[in-house]
Amino acid sequence: MQKTLLSGVKPTGEAHIGNYFGAMRQFVDRQDDYRQFIFIANYHALTSVSDGALLQNLTLELAMDYLAIGIDPKKTTLFLQSDVPEVTELAWIFNTITTVPYLSRAHAFKDAEAKNKEVNVGLFDYPILMAADILMYGADIVPVGLDQKQHIEIARDTAQKFNRIFGETFKIPEAMILEEVKTVPGTDGRKMSKSYGNVIGLFASDEEIRKAVMSIPTDSKGVDEPKDPSVCKVFAIHELFPGENTEALRARYLSGGIGYKEVKDLLVEKIIAFVSPMRARREEIARNPEAVLKILREGGEVARAHAQRMMDDVRGKVGLTFK
Ligand code: AMP
Ligand code: TRP
């Protein structure tokens, strides 16, 4: 039987090349080989977006992004997380078998606490809702960026704990993290992230791409000096994009004779060449938002039917229903 692949992205800002190379591209590459569920994690987004109109807007934008990169709704069930409200019920049931000290060890929560942010209960419980997303559809593999690794481990632990207490119910999912990508750096050298304002937008204009690339910090080595490609953030982004010249570029770094200005100009050209066809497709898709909403609605119905079957079983096992 075909294995199930599932993943989601939060509609909290413009999709960027970190999202694309870390996660989204794999959804396109694998849709022929897996039964695939891809969704827009709008319940998760509520932990950081408290503006209804903005959330609607970001949601529609992300749906268009998915379609523009090549998600085919005939092959992939593309849907809104909130069109399957059963996931919040499953998350509640998982809450009752999860301890507070266990969730207190999650990185995202610890980071927010360390920064003295006011942590809402939704943010604290974020990994459990994510476990519900993953386990609800019987996912075998979950392609994500390295920053989500711990969340997949929490989903695995939760499945094992539930199965131990109530009997075999959930499949144990595996994370799929691309070794060669791991974490894409942003224009300030930190992880590229919607919340740091350091992104190169996947659908940015030529001018925005140029500006973002030019702002990446480099060391002060002159043109002729040898340079270390393994510590250069510009080189790290070069490596993501296809093109046979990466090896030649590495050699020029090591021998000296290339300046950062030239490296950045080459990168701008490479990014523009790569994103322009997707950008054009996206413009086409954006002309018909109704068609996009229809795809989401239909995907939601398919996903919900799976979820309802799963919840019948779960409700019975935990004793909420009588059979
Ligand atoms: P998010 O935008 O946080 O919903 O992330 C969506 C997907 O993109 C997740 O699988 C993340 O792990 C992945 N991702 C986000 N930022 C990066 C990055 N800088 N490098 C690699 N993957 C990333
Ligand atoms: N937490 C993920 C992120 O920030 C988004 C997400 C929510 C997700 N539920 C998921 C990813 C289930 C994979 C599977 O990127």
Automatic annotation (TrEMBL):
EC number: 6.1.1.2
A cellular component annotation (GO) from this entry: cytosol
Binding site for ATP: 10-12, 18-19, 145-147, 184, 191-195
Main location (coarse class): cytoplasm
Motif segment ('KMSKS' region): 191-195
Keywords, sorted A to Z: Aminoacyl-tRNA synthetase, ATP-binding, Cytoplasm, Ligase, Nucleotide-binding, Protein biosynthesis
Subcellular compartments: Cytoplasm
GO BP field: tryptophanyl-tRNA aminoacylation
Top-rank lineage group of the source organism: Bacteria
GO molecular function: ATP binding; tryptophan-tRNA ligase activity
Catalytic activity: tRNA(Trp) + L-tryptophan + ATP = L-tryptophyl-tRNA(Trp) + AMP + diphosphate + H(+)
Uppermost EC category: ligase
Chain residues that bind L-tryptophan: 133
Any single Pfam family the record assigns to this protein: tRNA-synt_1b
Subunit note: Homodimer.
Similarity annotation: Belongs to the class-I aminoacyl-tRNA synthetase family.
Function: Catalyzes the attachment of tryptophan to tRNA(Trp).
HAMAP family according to UniProt: Trp_tRNA_synth_B (MF_00140_B)
Name listed for the protein in its UniProt record: Tryptophan--tRNA ligase
Organism: Candidatus Nomurabacteria bacterium GW2011_GWC2_42_20
Lineage: Bacteria, Candidatus Nomuraibacteriota
